[in-house]
Design a protein that fits this description.
Order of helices and strands: HHHEEEEHHEEHE
Structural class: alpha+beta
Number of helices: 6
Number of domains: 1
Largest sheet: 7 strands, mixed
Helix content: 25-40%
Shape: globular
Strand content: 15-25%
Distance between the termini: 37 Å
Number of strands: 7
Length: 234
Amino acid sequence: MTSFTLEIDPYDVLGVAEGANLEEIREAYRRKAKLHHPDAGGETWAFRILVQAYENLSAARVSRVAWAEFAARPTAARVVPPEHESDDVEETVRAGAQDVVLDPARVVDVEKLWVRRDVGGVWLLRDALGNDRFLSCSLNVTWPSEAHGDEARSVADPAGIVQELTDVFSEMQSLSGATSSNSQTEEERFSGWLSYPSLNKATIAFRELHHALRSRGFSVRSWTRDLTIPRERR
């Protein structure tokens, strides 16, 4: 079996400018998803490249937006209004693990981003975790937490925290079976994402990541963002 490594420019894939905001990225993704989704006659490999490009560009932006939603309504899920469900991607955000905060400067945000195809609603009733329905599963990691940014910016050694998170991320890349990953570090900020081929592997990876962070004295604030892509109507 021959393996190929392909370098892609996510901006070219989605057709957006480098300064595109989150809404522009999402709109480009939704528009192209309708054209390239396998249910609409598209190729599975091409659609996965599209999903990966979306993950690459939106991971950090999506994390910031998601936490802002929970700051106001920490237990509520946000769903795209019903009038858009027939022809648009449905998006739902659910609260996840919320560790006790021992040190506000060491709180890490982790978003679980699931992208799946709709199968007429029956996935809610039977075989809800069928891996063939998940087109992409990724973990998006951000520090400082949106909820504790002020405390994090006041720590004496933010570069040291960034290095600790870089070490954890490197371990996850090599040990968790991630199919692709990307991270960006600055002296006072860390962001990265890890992508997995199935929901099962992503769920196990989150448990491993959670344990690795807690063992180093970090607290985790997490949520799950579901993007459900509707079937094209015949």
